[in-house]
Amino acid sequence: MNPKINIRWNVGLLTFAFLFLFCRPQNGVPSPSRHPSQNHPSAEGTASVKTFNVKSYGARGDGQRDDTKALQAAIDAAVAAGGGDVVFAPGTYKISRFLVLDNAHAIKLTTESSATIRQIKHKSYCFKVMNGSSEITITNLILAGSDTPLEAGGLGGGILIGNYYGEGGDAGTTKRNIVIENVQISGFAFAGILLHACQSGKIVPRNEHITIRNSAIRDCQNGIMVYKNGRHIKIENNIIEETWQDGIAIDTRCATDPEPSMENADISIRGNVIRRAGKDAQAVGILVKGKNNAIDIAGNRIHDIGVDLTGPDHKSYGILLGPDSFGDFNADDVRITGNSLFRISSVSGDDMGIFIGEKSRNIRIEGNWLYRTGNVGLRLFKARDVKIRNNVICSNWYRSLLSEGSDDVSEDNILECKAWMARLVVWLFDRPRTFRF
Asked: Looking at residue 283, what is its pLDDT?
């Protein structure tokens, strides 16, 4: 190479690294040095909004007594009044069952400074939003699983939108306009947040216009799950770490559900950090399974997936698009752009950065960084209409790109970079961002 060109290339690369490291805008995740509530005014600051302080309804928040009845009474009072702010005074509130928002409208669950809701046993979710509830905000709270051993058949999670199997009633009319933000969730036996539209084989109304942002989820079986019939869902700028299975899972049919797969549509998964997913049989950073349409996966940082797996048959994926539980359907119109994936691994060697499975179609994969993503960087299996453009794939064991039985695939500008370049990119992207649990 011409020495002048070589010098110019090195200066340009160092300039890019400096600008990226010191001048890039923050992506909106709250700093761990302050509580998320400092980003929002308290409920007391708006005179026109009714306030329901849980202490006024008998809640103690001492971390010892069961506050379930008092907390539910405060929520019911706000629902009966047609809306308002349910304010959790500082403290730790123990609950023995879920707190229900049933046909609730214009309700905000928040705290004055720092409030923890902790399950007594692994039984159900902390909050359940159901039966046509709308305009619901859950913000600034800490939701913690039980510190007792998991019992046989025990479940539990942070927030459930919809009904879960066997809990009676109907999921009611569509739940819409729900915001979950600046919430910390940890230590649950199932999902941190679950949007659920499977109910005893019935086709139930949709969950739509749901936003989950700027929250942290750790040490749950799954981070965020959307099960069946979700519309206009935004999952943005969250930190999800140390899950037993998937970081984010979008699915369209439950394993015991005899009804046809119900489509999820218009789902945005952007700016999330997903790390150390997978202590169980399969580890996936982002899973899109079944009949999903118009899915945008952009600007996420997915790393250290499957590093904790030990079994010989375990599998790891950064991003996986696959058929549903019955082998039917798959994704249509999916954009995978600007993501960084690194350190995807498993004992079996069946690991890869991005896997596009059978019957997927109209897929665009552009501007992604993949470094040490296992056996294969990007694999296509019987997919159709796939456009691959401007991706960087480094240091895979077998192949950077593997296409099997796929039709109408176009590849443009795949850069297989040198190891030192990849390490520089990982160093730049892998800036620590954590919450204090």
From this structure: 86
List b or e across 161-174, with b for residues whose CB sees 16 or more CB atoms inside 10 angstroms: bbbbeebeeebbeb
Pairing of strands 202-203, 198-199: antiparallel
Per-residue pLDDT for 127 more than 90?
A: yes
- Domain CATH code at residue 391: 2.160.20
241 located within any domain: no
The dihedral through the CA atoms of 303, 156, 28, 294 has a sign that is positive
How far apart (Å, rounded) are the C-alpha atoms in residues 111 and 197? 29
4-35 pLDDT per residue, tens: 444 444 544 455 444 444 444 444 434 333 33
Residue 227 domain flag: no
Phi/psi class of residue 63: alpha, beta or left (left: φ > 0; alpha: ψ in -120 to 50)?
left
Residue range of the domain that includes 341: 255-437
**Contact between residue 191 and residue 156 where contact means Cβ atoms under 8 Å apart:** no
* 33: in domain: no
Give the tens place of pLDDT for each residue, 197-221.
Answer: 765 455 566 788 999 999 999 999 8
Q: Is 3 helix (H, G, I), strand (E, B) or coil?
A: helix
pTM given for the model:
0.83
Eight-state DSSP code of residue 358:
T
- Read off the tokens for 306: 């499957």
**Rounded distance, CA 183 to CA 142, Å?**
6
* Number of structural domains found in the chain: 1
Concatenated DSSP letters for 70-137?
HHHHHHHHHHHTT-EEEEE-SEEEEESSPEEEES-EEEEEEESS-EEEEESSSSSEEEEEETT-EEEE
Helix, strand, coil proportions of the chain in percent (round to 5)? Answer: 15, 45, 40
Give the pLDDT confidence of 29-68 residue by residue, as tens digits: 343 333 333 333 333 444 578 999 999 999 999 999 999 9
Residue appearing with tokens 């019992």: 151
